[in-house]
Recover the amino acids of this structure.
């Protein structure tokens, strides 16, 4: 028999940050597979101001014009009552909830010694608190159904660090940890929680970063050129997120998937790459001797004496 062309038919998905970029592409991808989609987007700038209901409404309209079912929502994930209303809106309009994609988030660009503390809080709330709020609001309904899939969008900035991205990196790093905890808490209830870690993707956030790097001299221009060469369309990421919502992917829980142009894989951030053994009673001098035998990973860190 041919494969079911609408494997997600009858299921309801919430996609946050779905007015543009990866979120928009994900909402459209899920709809093409038959899902009914609550298109959530505050519609704000990357810094979190000037909210606008238009982006979410346009995506919902695009889904409907293609024959799908969608509902626009402009609530903020960073605020608990608003995030709870996102879930309530999906339930009120569609009558059920099966899938949750946590993609919404803001950005901030400043060296850590110049980072505005209030804006740091705002960015972290949008990513970490926003993801928690939506999972917390959705989980009781998914538990009641005994099934569901949650996909969180993360970033290498949350593990490896990107210069000038303290707030964004801290928020995404927290989502890495939250994914693992949620997978363990919700897995016994039949709910799987995974994360997607995209390489450079054509989004507002990345293209803005490229423009900023290009204005920072020769080193920045090289970084901008590298990012541009690696750029992939948001539809790539959306396809992976949609795939993880299919029943065929039900055996994955608590996993982080990495996707770049031409390569997909499972990411293991906890792999031990070098080690030394001892008798279990470590001393300062013994540990100093052991660790100085390691080769630093580097991760592009530049020290003052280099």
């Amino acid at each position: 028999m041919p494969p079911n062309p609408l494997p997600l038919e009858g299921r309801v998905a919430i996609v946050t940050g779905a007015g543009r970029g990866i979120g928009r592409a994900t909402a459209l991808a899920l709809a093409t597979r038959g899902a009914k989609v609550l298109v959530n987007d505050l519609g704000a700038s990357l810094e979190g101001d000037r909210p606008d209901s238009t982006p979410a409404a346009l995506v919902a309209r695009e889904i409907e014009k293609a024959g799908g079912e969608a509902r626009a929502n402009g609530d903020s994930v960073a605020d608990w009552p608003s995030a709870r209303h996102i879930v309530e809106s999906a339930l009120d309009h569609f009558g059920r909830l099966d899938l949750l994609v946590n993609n919404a988030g803001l950005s901030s660009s400043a060296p850590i010694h110049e980072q505005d503390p209030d804006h740091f809080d705002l960015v972290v709330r949008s990513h970490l608190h926003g993801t928690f709020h939506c999972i917390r609001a959705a989980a009781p309904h998914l538990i009641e159904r005994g099934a569901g899939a949650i996909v969180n969008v993360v970033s290498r900035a949350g593990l490896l660090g990107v210069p000038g991205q303290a707030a964004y990196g801290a928020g995404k790093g927290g989502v890495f940890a939250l994914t693992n905890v949620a997978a363990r808490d919700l897995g016994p209830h039949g709910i799987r929680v995974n994360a997607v870690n995209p390489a450079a993707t054509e989004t507002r956030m990345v293209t803005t970063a490229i423009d900023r790097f290009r204005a920072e001299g020769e080193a920045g221009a090289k970084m901008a050129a590298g990012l541009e060469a690696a750029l992939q369309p948001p539809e790539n990421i959306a396809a992976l997120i949609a795939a993880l919502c299919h029943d065929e992917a039900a055996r994955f829980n608590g996993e982080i998937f990495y996707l770049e142009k031409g390569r997909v894989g499972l990411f293991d951030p906890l792999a031990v790459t070098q080690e030394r053994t001892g008798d279990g009673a470590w001393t300062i001098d013994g540990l100093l001797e052991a660790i100085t035998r390691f080769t630093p990973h580097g991760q592009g860190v530049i020290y003052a004496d280099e």
Residues 12-198+232-267 form a domain with the Rossmann fold fold (CATH 3.40.50.720). Strands lie at 12-15, 36-40, 70-73, 99-102, 148-153, 191-198, 256-260, 263-267.
